[in-house]
Design a protein that fits this description.
Length: 351
């Protein structure tokens, strides 16, 4: 679709570039330690300023590509130009809709953050709202920016949703915790004390890793609380079985929630490419290989936590029969492809 890119588009390109750069340079990670999490208060003005700038930018985008927008045409009476105008109007409406949904989501994040700061909510809530607001702002900017450039028939700036390697490491941590607490392979035959002690060591090991500060503050605080509960139970003179079972259930439930990190956009993009390439490698042109290559098996470790059946094949390094890989790979490919086609508003995108 041919557009006439003018001063308005160039100006918005610059504003997107500057605001995205500010968002990417803003570090809103705070320690989960109760004595230090109060630092979140200092972050509020910065995040509020960025969210307001995002809302203003998206409002201006809606105005520029409003109902009055139409491409320049030399002969508006020709059928081709009439068709171009109709097509452009539909595309502009889609762009406005995306911008509207993104702006609405950012306004909600801004109002929530201001309310939590004004009413002196607990510091964890404040820190979480700062993190969440900045994360939503970045998603909204990247999504709307790419749509504007596509509308203008211009190459969009190359952006990354997040550091994919960091996200993959976090997902692997969460998958290990889920496996430790039951996950796909139940371990109810082990004594409760042994199971809790194993999880304790797992969480302590997490905290020593360089990637740990990149976990969401909510997750870090929750892990810290669970760690304290485990220590209290293990060190108690009378280890109440009922309390221990409730603690184990809370651990298992939390581990199941954590694996939802796989829904992050940067991981969906990575996973779809890897799953598609794996399927083409194992089943080229409808045929199939005799065995899963070792190098591919190593790469597939990055998919742990996405699908129980696939997890089993990867964890056991099931090189043959290859046919066993067809169903989970096709299922996952379809799921990831469908998710990539969704054009819903940013507020329904998992963070």
């Amino acid at each position: 679709m041919q557009k006439t890119t003018g001063k308005g588009f160039s100006e918005f390109g610059r504003r997107f570039e500057e605001l995205v750069a500010q968002v990417e340079s803003a570090d809103v990670r705070v320690p989960e330690d109760s004595a230090l999490i109060s630092l979140a208060t200092d972050l509020v003005p910065k995040v509020v300023h960025l969210l307001r700038a995002g809302v203003e930018l998206l409002t201006d985008i809606e105005k520029l590509y409003g109902p009055a927008y139409s491409p320049e045409a030399e002969d508006s009476d020709s059928l081709s130009q009439i068709g171009l105008q109709i097509s452009t109007e539909l595309a502009a409406r889609d762009l406005r809709d995306m911008s509207f949904f993104a702006r609405t989501d950012l306004k909600s994040s801004l109002e929530t953050l201001i309310a939590s700061a004004t009413h002196k909510s607990n510091q964890m809530t404040l820190a979480s709202n700062c993190e969440g607001g900045l994360r939503r702002l970045r998603k909204a900017l990247i999504s709307v920016e790419s749509t504007v450039y596509e509308f203008e028939n211009q190459p969009a700036p190359e952006r990354h949703w997040f550091d994919v390697e960091v996200s993959l490491q976090i997902r692997k941590l969460y998958w290990n915790l889920r496996r430790e607490t039951g996950g796909t392979a139940g371990n109810e035959d082990r004594p409760l004390e042994a199971r809790l002690r194993a999880v304790l060591y797992r969480i302590l090991a997490f905290r020593e890793l360089s990637v740990y500060p990149f976990l969401r503050v909510d997750d870090r605080v929750h892990l810290r609380r669970l760690l304290k509960r485990i220590l209290d139970w293990l060190n108690s003179d009378q280890q109440d079985p009922a309390i221990g079972r409730r603690l184990w259930q809370d651990l298992s439930s939390f581990a199941e929630i954590l694996v939802q990190v796989s829904h992050r956009q940067e991981l969906r993009d990575h996973d779809l490419k890897l799953v598609s390439r794996a399927y083409r490698t194992l089943f080229p042109f409808g045929a199939r290989r005799r065995t899963v290559p070792d190098e591919l098996m190593d790469e597939l470790q990055a998919l742990l936590g996405l699908d129980d059946e696939l997890d089993h094949l990867i964890a056991t390094r099931m090189a043959r029969p290859v046919e066993g890989w067809r169903r989970p790979l096709k299922r996952l490919q379809a799921s990831l492809s469908h998710a990539g086609e969704l054009s819903g508003p940013p507020e329904i995108w998992p963070g």
